[in-house]
Amino acid sequence: MKKKTVIITGGNSGLGYQCALNIAKNDPDYHILLACRNLKKADTAAEMLKSETGNPNISTMELDLASLSSIRMFYDAFSKADLPPLYAVVCNAGISAGGVPGEKYTKDGYEMIFGVSHLGHFLLTNLLLNLMGKSGRIVFVSSDMHNPPPFFRLKLVYDNAKAISARSSGMLQYCTSKLCNIYCSYEMARLLATKTDRQITVNAFNPGAMSDTNFIRIEGNILLQGIMRGFSRVMGVIVGKPSSSVKSGAILASLIIEPALAEMTGKYLDRGKDIKSSLLSYNKDNARELWKTSMELSKLSQSETIFGQ
Ligand SMILES: NC(=O)c1ccc[n+]([C@@H]2O[C@H](COP(=O)([O-])OP(=O)(O)OC[C@H]3O[C@@H](n4cnc5c(N)ncnc54)[C@H](OP(=O)(O)O)[C@@H]3O)[C@@H](O)[C@H]2O)c1
Questions:
Q1: Euclidean distance between the first and the last CA atom of the chain, given in angstroms as a whole number
Q2: Paired strand residues for 209
């Protein structure tokens, strides 16, 4: 089989790293591109992956999802790079409810969690669709928290994307950004099926609670970080969705490389199992509003997309 490229955002760490490891280990037909904001970390991860798997087909490229110009620079660099044709994009990078200390907003002035998790991936995937062929796969990493359990006492409402982009960081914003990942998956899957003749699949993935990643970051306080990780493990058990980056990374990789899944699209996959997402996540008006406003916020013109007018 001819080689093809899979891009993994945030592939230097946690779930993204484990996804890359499983693809590299199990399928030599893929070139893996780690798209990361910190090239030094990405290069270190690529070297580790090569030595762990013996697969040399792993490279890195700079991508800061908190900057629209970085996303466009990545797209330009990728389109000129001498790599196999693009087959899949794993939208994995994300920021926890704690946000990024000292950086509340993206370079373009949008709240950081929403800006990275949803808006950055929205622009990236819309641009990259131009480079994908007749078939391919896109996965948006979402979370159980798109539908927070009642004891969190969070009232998740979708008002509109502009308002969401201007909110403050925090748990409610994290949950909303993960809801946006699902809206974006469902709407992209719908547009591909109704406006194009391409067999590109788009799904949302819930990895479950993984306390073995670098997701919970409390700068300079290792004790508090340990406590928070322990809390996250307990929460995973209480909510009934415990996992690890090792387990969920293998499942995420299978969504890209498993031949039997080549036609599955528009689904919410809870650690690989096709289940219903929240009632709110099926609101089509919200999904369309998010899509339309995200085009405006990310300065993406209709003519730059494969969906045309
Ligand atoms: N951990 C959990 O329990 C859990 C549960 C449900 C869903 N998830 C989701 O799983 C995904 C992966 O998280 P993880 O647990 O594996 O955490 P992680 O180890 O912290 O990985 C997150 C990745 O995102 C990258 N990232 C953050 N901001 C970025 C930006 N502006 N541009 C590009 N990359 C950026 C990080 O890069 P740096 O290393 O440079 O910071 C890192 O590579 C996230 O989408 C998260 O919401 C996690």
A1: 36
A2: 242
In tens, the pLDDT along 152-184 reads 889 899 999 999 999 999 999 999 999 999 999
93 CA: nearest ligand 1 atom = 24
Low-confidence spans in the chain with pLDDT less than 70 = 1, 218-220, 309
Q: Is the Cα dihedral 182, 284, 164, 130 positive or negative?
A: positive
DSSP classification of residue 119: I
The whole model's pTM is what?
A: 0.96
Q: Which of 74, 91, 95 to mutate to test the pocket of ligand 1 (most atoms within 8 A of CB)?
A: 95
Residue with structure tokens 């819309």? 126
The number of the ligand 1 atom at minimal distance from the alpha carbon of 141 is: 45
Active-site residue 174, yes or no?
yes
Q: Token pair of 269, please?
A: 């996959």
Q: Which residue intervals of the chain are DSSP H helices?
A: 14-26, 39-53, 68-80, 112-114, 121-128, 161-165, 171-195, 222-239, 245-257, 284-297
DSSP H/E element including 148: none
